[in-house]
Amino acid sequence: MVEWIISDGLTAYEDALAFMETRVAGIIDGSANECIWLLEHPPLYTAGTSAKHADLIDPDRFPVFDARRGGEYTYHGPGQRVAYVMLNVGQRGHDVRAFVKDLENWVIATLDTFNVKGEIREGRVGVWVQRPEKPAQPDGSPAEDKIAALGIRLRKWVSFHGLSINVDPDLSHFDGIVPCGISDHGVTSLVDLGLPVTMNDLDVALRRSFETCM
Predict the structure, then answer these.
(1) Are 171 and 50 in contact (CB under 8 A)?
(2) Out of 20, 180, 197, 205, which one is annotated catalytic?
(3) What CA–CA distance (Å, rounded) separates 161 from 127?
């Protein structure tokens, strides 16, 4: 049984880390249920295990945290829905790649609720959307912007961290980092795409899509 928690307001990153540590320990020892936690953070940057210092362009802009998850630098802030997934991957097939693929498909199915086509690209972490109204890429293909980021960590086959989807964050806040180490593509959000989606709308879609994707 998966417990869903939705937090109002902004959750301090340190509090989120402490909660995940406690919940994951409980899932491992059998004293707690799996959990999906939906929240927003105040503006901050997190560094994954592959983060390169040169990708932190403006280190004094917002607090920077060592996330100890996979991936590189990521921004979190108001208007972005963070979904922390504390799930027993051992009971879900013992396959990390398949689990990450399920997370990607969960995001894609959620975006499809709003008629947004999310796509995965080899060598580029996260979920992307085409922007044909922007100048094409050097190879002539449509420009693409990132709308969702993913990064997880496992302890004894239980997952930490998870994903983030941009609903209506201040996109200029991403300028202080090279998001996920990718400098030749932009970042977008549901509202930036012209969709009047609220955080509650996204939460409903996330819960509905979870049942079929995870």
Answers:
(1) no
(2) 180
(3) 16
73-76/80-86 β-pairing: unpaired
Inter-residue contact 101 to 93 (CB < 8 Å): no
DSSP per residue over 17-81, as a string? Answer: HHHHHHHHHHHHHTSS-EEEEEE---SEEEE-TT--GGGBS-TTTS-EEE--SSSSEEEE-TTEE
pLDDT, tens digit only, all 214 positions of the chain = 999 999 999 999 999 999 999 999 999 999 999 999 999 999 999 998 888 989 999 999 999 999 888 788 999 999 999 999 999 999 999 999 999 999 999 999 999 999 999 999 988 889 999 999 999 888 888 999 999 999 999 999 999 999 999 999 999 999 999 876 566 788 999 999 999 999 999 999 999 999 999 8
Residue 116 corresponds to which amino acid? V
* pTM assigned to the model: 0.94
Active site residue 180: yes
Distance, C-alpha 30 to centroid of its chain: 27
Question: Any residues with CB less than 8 A from the CB of 203 and at least 6 apart, and which?
Answer: 6, 38, 81
CA atoms within 13 A on the CB side of 31: 6
